[in-house]
TrEMBL record, chain B:
Native source organism of the sequence: Streptomyces xanthochromogenes
Annotated region described as Disordered, given as residue ranges: 1-24
Lineage: Bacteria, Bacillati, Actinomycetota, Actinomycetes, Kitasatosporales
Compositional bias ranges of the Basic and acidic residues kind: 1-11
Protein name, UniProt field: DUF742 domain-containing protein
PANTHER family per the UniProt record, alphabetical: DUF742 DOMAIN-CONTAINING PROTEIN (PTHR36221:SF1)
Length: 199, 115
């Protein structure tokens, strides 16, 4: 553990503004790979817990149970300048993690939906949720060497509005992941000039 | 090898936070940067002391949680204790709005392009 701490370089004393971008996607789609490829620290892992009233009600005595749900997520860090530090969070896209999303999305700049074109349906829920929250996002198809789909095919399968950027990437490559992040921030800048485009 | 904290019993987490399950406020965002204002004092709870050592340079809440191997929820409570007693200061994210201000976005773009 001590060696891991020393691997995490300290931020400058002037750092005073943390920013968030969330990378969402199905299991095995390469979220952590993308975070790792651009992060200045080895991705760290932590967990969030939430207690909620259980849905199940005992038929006999009607006692409601409370269940604590714990979900782990990865994150990395990019120092942008003397003041701004960007944190990238890799979050599981499955429906049962909705509560983690709600927390992560609060105050986030935007999201990258990482997609495996062989399993497009895995990202439907994530996209629904982002649209519901009004969180701006771009869709990045991680290249797994599967059958090539045209952009139109992917856009149609995901029911993506024309203004949502769709790009291909190789999450293992720093330059490629960086391009995805830049595409997201440029998209944010466009939305700022035309906020009516936000769902 | 399992990560420290993962298999800890809820009892231990309960003890760490003095039985509280809420920090009273959601003031500490995942990316709020925490900075130590005073060195650990003798007899201080070890997790509090660890946070004070860790945050001599600005450190995000989520990094503190990862390094202590504790859930973020528990770390927020520990941070609230330290904040209430003036031992840490918190630099909260500036962009709480729906969209961050144009200057910040421009700074992010410049920073990313310079990577």
């Amino acid at each position: 553990m001590a060696s891991e701490i020393s691997e995490r370089p300290a931020l400058a004393g002037t750092a005073d503004n943390g920013l968030k971008i969330v990378v969402v996607g199905g299991f095995g789609v390469g979220k952590t790979t993308m975070v790792r490829s651009v992060s200045e620290i080895r991705p760290l892992n932590t967990e969030e817990t939430m207690t909620k009233a259980g849905e199940a009600v005992d038929d006999l005595d009607g006692v409601r149970t409370k269940t604590a749900t714990t979900v782990a997520f990865d994150f990395g860090r990019i120092t942008l300048d003397a003041h701004n530090v960007l944190y990238l969070f890799g979050a599981p896209g499955q429906e049962r993690f909705w509560f983690l999303w709600d927390r992560l999305f609060a105050g986030t700049l935007g999201a990258v939906v990482l997609v495996d074109t062989r399993r497009l349906a895995d990202s439907w829920y994530a996209i629904d949720r982002l649209e519901h929250h009004g969180t701006p996002f771009v869709v990045a198809c991680n290249d797994f060497g599967g059958p090539a789909h045209t952009e139109d095919q992917v856009r149609e399968a995901l029911d993506l509005p024309a203004e949502v950027p769709l790009l291909r990437c190789d999450a293992r490559a720093r330059a490629s992941s960086k391009t995805v992040l830049i595409a997201l921030v440029e998209h944010l800048a466009r939305l700022q000039k035309a906020p009516e485009l936000i769902p | 090898m399992s990560r420290p904290g993962r298999d800890d019993s809820p009892d231990r987490l309960y003890t760490l936070t003095g039985g509280r399950s809420r920090s009273g406020s959601d003031a500490f965002d995942l990316v709020t940067l925490v900075v130590t204002e005073s060195e650990p004092a003798p007899g201080m709870q070890s997790e509090h002391a660890a946070i004070l050592r860790m945050c001599r340079f600005p450190t995000a809440v989520v990094e503190i949680a990862a390094e202590l191997g504790l859930p973020v929820t528990v770390v927020r409570i520990l941070l609230a204790d330290l904040h209430d007693t003036g031992r840490i200061s918190a630099r909260h994210p500036r962009s709480a709005h729906r969209l961050p201000d144009p200057d910040i976005l421009e700074q992010v773009l410049v920073g990313l392009r310079n990577l």
